[in-house]
Design goal:
Length: 507
């Protein structure tokens, strides 16, 4: 999460009315879809997924705890990213005080329950782990960083200090090696040789090294690369099968040196793997904007991000083509979220309109299409749970009723229908201003068409001429927090509703 400093065929459709209307003569001039199924553009490598960020609403006893982890389990996604992070040190840092010659402060009592819930909910699927927050005592600071006794209290200044006490990084690496050992090897020996037993034997397929390092600790590409190497070296000794992910940048557009330096293998110790890189994007409208503007701002900013992705991919392919890419924080952060953060996490009145969730869901669907075209490996929506005081506009759960919102259902709709190995085929629309489309042929031979309406107005769609009888699973304003509903269509012209996303299938 960006810190407050900043066969069968299917059609996935982003729509524009509170409900889906079927008509032989749709309102306005229909957008005609043409597909050449014999012309493959690229074979998809992309996996749609999400991130789970630790916060108090995911703790046992929270009114949405059960619903959130149940939704995560039912989604069944691969490569879900798990991130205990800086605002809640007691929920994210396992050793809050520096060790002495006689004692250590290792304590997992508050960390284990959510981690276990996450592992249970994602059982059977590969995951990405990222305990992103470094203990503050590993850095040189003027005085020890104060930590509230209440683990649920937000702390926005925990990541103080720029210089490690141990510049070699060994102390840093040892912390992470012990943390990983706790979960993968049943425990560890602490700094004084005392054994700490957990009984866990989880597998961590991928470990992401730190988070948004371009914001935290005034890190430079050179410093991050040194710390990455130290952490990877230490974790690899205790978990030799783990692969590693680097960077997790908040603002990848600001300095290409992050990529050109980190992806150059000569800047790393011999044998250090560069399995994945990651970075983030959030659309960020102005405070005085609303739905009428968001329909442009979200997608215009997304287009600029997609241009950045092309440049990053060019650097990656030149320096380290074997490295994969995970864009693991994609979404919207409304400016009202930032106001809460600047107000020390004090929740403000909820002014998010219901249709916002559909607009944000439509944005993710758009990014999924465009990033699939660029061959991005993992496309991660952010995030499972947010709520007032903790980035409410980024949530995929309704914190008022514990049900998944439209952003979750859009992800599930895409995840259930589109997979790595699908062929993206040549697709044309008569107009691209409001609607984008992409045809897919699945590895099983089914034909699918992904359509995205980016505007807050009706969009008339004319499907290929051979499509006359079809079923539609739709997420729109009418479904609210409920699962997609299924409708039966006839004729090949549709009128579609605001910011909805649908899968149309026909024989």
């Amino acid at each position: 999460m960006t810190s407050f400093y900043r066969g069968v065929a299917a059609v996935v459709v982003s729509l524009v009315m509170p409900f889906l209307v079927w008509s032989q003569s749709a309102t306005g001039k229909p957008n005609v879809v043409t597909i050449d199924w014999n012309k493959t553009i690229i074979v998809s490598k992309s996996t749609p997924t999400l991130q789970v960020v630790v916060n108090p609403m995911l703790r046992a006893g929270s009114p949405i705890h059960d619903g959130s982890f149940d939704a995560l389990k039912k989604l069944g996604a691969d490569y879900v990213r798990y991130v205990p992070w800086e605002p809640y040190p007691r929920l994210a840092v396992a050793e809050l005080e520096p060790p002495t010659k006689s004692s250590t402060s290792w304590d997992f009592k508050l960390i284990d329950p959510m981690t276990k819930d996450f592992m249970d909910a994602t059982s059977g699927h590969p995951i990405i782990m990222n305990f992103s927050t470094i203990p503050s005592w590993l850095f040189k600071t003027e005085k020890p960083v104060a930590i509230p006794q209440d683990p649920n209290q937000v702390v926005w200044d925990y990541t103080q200090g720029t210089e490690l006490n141990d510049p070699s990084g060994k102390e840093l690496g040892d912390y992470y090696a012990r943390l990983v050992s706790w979960y993968t090897r049943g425990g560890f020996s602490d700094e004084n040789g005392k054994e700490h037993k957990s009984g866990y034997s989880y597998s961590f397929p991928i470990w992401e090294v730190l988070n948004e390092v371009d914001f935290e600790h005034q890190t430079t590409p050179e410093l991050y690369t040194q710390r990455y190497d130290a952490i990877v070296t230490a974790i690899h000794k205790v978990s030799p099968d783990t692969k590693f992910m680097g960077l997790a940048l908040a603002q990848p557009q600001l300095d290409p040196k992050w990529f050109s330096y980190f992806l150059d293998h000569t800047h790393h110790q011999v044998g250090i793997p560069l399995d994945y890189i990651s970075y983030h994007f959030y659309a960020s409208p102005s405070l005085d904007e609303g739905l009428a503007n968001w329909q442009y701002t979200f997608f215009d900013q997304a287009d600029r991000f997609l241009t950045n992705v092309r440049y990053v991919e060019a650097i990656r392919k030149r320096l380290s083509p074997e490295t994969k890419t995970d864009l693991n924080e994609l979404g919207v952060i409304l400016p009202t979220d930032e106001l809460e953060n600047r107000d020390h996490g004090r929740p403000h009145p909820d002014r998010i309109p219901a249709l916002y969730w559909n607009a944000a869901g439509s944005l993710y669907a758009y990014l999924f299409v465009e990033l699939s075209k660029q061959g991005i490996d993992i496309i991660g929506e952010s995030q499972l749970v947010g709520y007032p005081s903790q980035f409410p506009s980024v949530s995929m759960m309704d914190w008022k009723n514990g049900k998944p919102n439209a952003r979750y259902w859009v992800l599930k709709l895409i995840k259930d229908n589109f997979h790595a190995g699908d062929k993206l085929v040549d697709t044309k629309l008569s107009s691209w201003s409001d609607v984008e489309g992409q045809g897919f042929e699945t590895s099983g031979g089914h034909k699918l068409l992904l359509l995205l309406n980016k505007r807050n107005r009706e969009a008339a769609i004319t499907l290929p001429a051979d499509v006359t009888n079809y079923a539609v699973s739709v997420v729109d304003g009418a479904t609210g927090d409920d699962a997609p509903r299924t409708l039966q269509g006839n004729g090949n012209t549709l009128t579609l509703s605001p910011f909805a996303v649908a899968v149309v299938s026909w024989k």
